[in-house]
Amino acid sequence: MIKIHDIGVSLKTSGTMFTPAQLELALEHLKQVGFPLVEINPALFPMIFDGELRPKRLADFLAVTKQSGMRLSIHGYDRLNLAYDPRHDLCRKIMRALIELCAAAGATRLVYHSGLQSLDDVRTGVRATLLTDDELQEGARREVKALKELGVIAADAGVIICMENLDPHLWEHTIFRGFGRPDSDLDKHLARLRIGPIVRQLEAVNHPNVAMTLDIGHLHMASYDRGFSYLDAVSEASPWVRHLHVSDNFGRLDAGYSIERDRWAFGEADTHMPPGWGIIPYRDVFARLPDYRDDMILEILVDFDHNLAEARENIRGFLA
Questions:
Q1: Which CATH class is domain 3-319?
Q2: Fewer CB atoms inside 10 Å of the end CB: C or N, the chain?
Q3: Per residue, what are the HEC states of the chain?
């Protein structure tokens, strides 16, 4: 049976970033709600510049987080991609800085979005063509090689790098239609929507300090979009999972609108709602993770801040 160590929460902000004073207030609020663990993306409190940790910014961050007494996990930058970003050396440098940050903050988990998504440069206009099959395979090998090296550094720092599965978006489908390609080809360019390709990367890395973050909401969205069995995919991930992200949604692809409050009314996109508000079958999901013995992060939007205690109690009910 699944056993959760601590239920933590992802730190969110309605602004662009935190000052030290704002960070202190935010952590104090989460602590008062009863959370012993918080996951922080350093984009909310910038400390890394051109791949290097700035000592003064790091000291300011540590002064606040250590005073809070809360445990930390660190969520890497969303755009960081060890497979397909052409600035590969810079990406590896940023990953090393993130590991250094984890070690300084006492965080044992570093979340890294799987790099098996090759459409960012096409979307931003940096590249005018889709990657070829050879380029896709070379990028996957590049990510494996980087994670082999980073796994050694992470082990020395007492950190586990946890690759996260991601969710689908309408813009990805739109790009493919623009190239006259069938949606079925998305599986090659968005391999991180499925568990199998991530597992194959982990098998190739073959290091105990490189594992998986299972994002339960992302996988739910992907299962509807790509047409695979959701619960079977959870079982496939289970042996590799060392970190969990939980939220809720309705499994419906977005319709091109980015305003979250509009999305809620239409039940579309990865809404990051409190568990129990959508249709994810959490009791069945947890039954597919019988050997999990670690923390869980409530990754819900700041708009639901006043529902954090309810979200935690809902999870406890699903676990009971």
A1: alpha beta
A2: C
A3: CCEEEEEEEECCCCCCCCCHHHHHHHHHHHHHHCCCEEEECHHHCCCEECCEECHHHHHHHHHHHHHHCCEEEEECCCCCCCCCCCCHHHHHHHHHHHHHHHHHHCCCEEEEECCCCCCHHHHHCCCCCCCCHHHHHHHHHHHHHHHHHHHHHHHHHCCEEEEECCCCCHHHHHHHHHCCCCHHHHHHHCHHHCHHHHHHHHHHHCCCCEEEEEEHHHHHHHHHHHCCCHHHHHHHHHHHEEEEEECECCCCCCCCCCCHHHHHHHCCCCCCECCCCCCCCHHHHHHCCCCCEEEEEECCCHHHHHHHHHHHHHHHHHHC
In 10 A of CB 183, how many CB atoms?
A: 13
Averaged pLDDT score across all residues of the chain: 96
Sorted by where each begins, the domain ranges of the chain are 3-319
The pLDDT tens digits for 210-259 are 999 999 999 999 999 999 999 999 999 999 999 999 999 999 999 988 88
CA dist 81 to 18, 136, 276, 320, Å? 25, 13, 32, 38
Lookup result for tokens 């590991």? 99
